[in-house]
Specification:
- By secondary structure, this protein is an alpha/beta fold.
- It has two domains: 153 residues, 3-Layer(aba) Sandwich (Rossmann fold), CATH 3.40.50.2300; 130 residues, 3-Layer(aba) Sandwich (Rossmann fold).
- 43% of the residues lie in helices and 16% in strands.
- It contains 13 helices and twelve strands.
- It has a six-stranded parallel sheet with strand order 2-1-3-4-5-11, sandwiched between helices. A six-stranded mixed sheet has the order 7-6-8-9-10-12, with helices on both faces.
- Helix 12 links the parallel strand 8 and strand 9.
- Helix 1 crosses helix 2.
- The longest helix is centred in the middle third of the chain and has 16 residues.
Length: 342
Amino acid sequence: MTVMTETAKRRPGPRIEEVARVAGVSKSTVSRVINDEQYVSAKAREAVHAAIAELGYSPNLAARALAGNRANAIALVVSEPTGRVLADPFFAGVLRGVHSELAGRHIQLLLMMSQPADTDDLVTYLSSGHVDGALLVSLHGDDPLVPMLAEIGLPVVSGGRPLGTTSVPFVDADNFTGGLEAARYLVSLGRKRIGTVAGPKDMAVGADRLSGFRRGLSEAKIATDLVAHADFTPESGAQAMEGLLRKAPELDAVFVAADIMALGALQVLHAHGRRIPEDVAVIGFDDSVFASSTTPPLTTIKQDVEELGRTMTWRLLAELAGEAGLPPSLLLPTSLVVRASA
């Protein structure tokens, strides 16, 4: 397994954007010409071929596909800083799942960290014949990486539902149902003033867990106004918990949308002298390695992160193999794990 801890910086040659500029056409037109698709005028096709010859552009993806050859490698692209990837057990679980699905297949795995400033270099690398496809994890907002990879024709699968309109296939946990089950459980305990430390606003995982949670409270006619957003770090979980306590000192339960954020939330509750679960019931999400080691051990919504990695990889390899009728999206089940915090 080949591991890359940051985006490759080398530039293997002219990019599709330069071909489009020299030819005086759009990048999508260049892509259609490379892939020998219809609906391109003879004049535009001739201009693209002339630009390719002038620049020495090598459309490796198309050439390799036409030749039936493979790189026998895929990329796992994580849109987070390296430090966060190494600190959060979620990413380690995904990596274990991807690796286990690739076992015995003689396919290399490249791990790449993506930041907005690196997107062009990353796309250049991925479009230059080094990999057959890519797995995308932790996408934020309207990440330009998704349409750019779609434009060059690289098969991709997203781990997590991308925000916005996209045809990219994805595999995700059933985050809405997980949030719903967390709310219903806290309601069943008799809690009345229930808040949540929600995930980032620019990620579907945050939106889906929050929507499910609000649905569960609405069923019980409980207010859904106690919401503070955080970014899947202990520090942000602590800040969000401080905000909830300032807004509602009478808060008696909180759903924290990731175990790693619950670490910070629990620390703040302890510092404020709140007994858990007597004063405040706490429930997390993930059932990560943190959940059983907190004080008290954390009740949480379990998602099988390794299965997420395995299923993403299966879906990508199935597409590369030309399997027909593949589902555009897959939701993996979640379940409640009860411990001492709620």
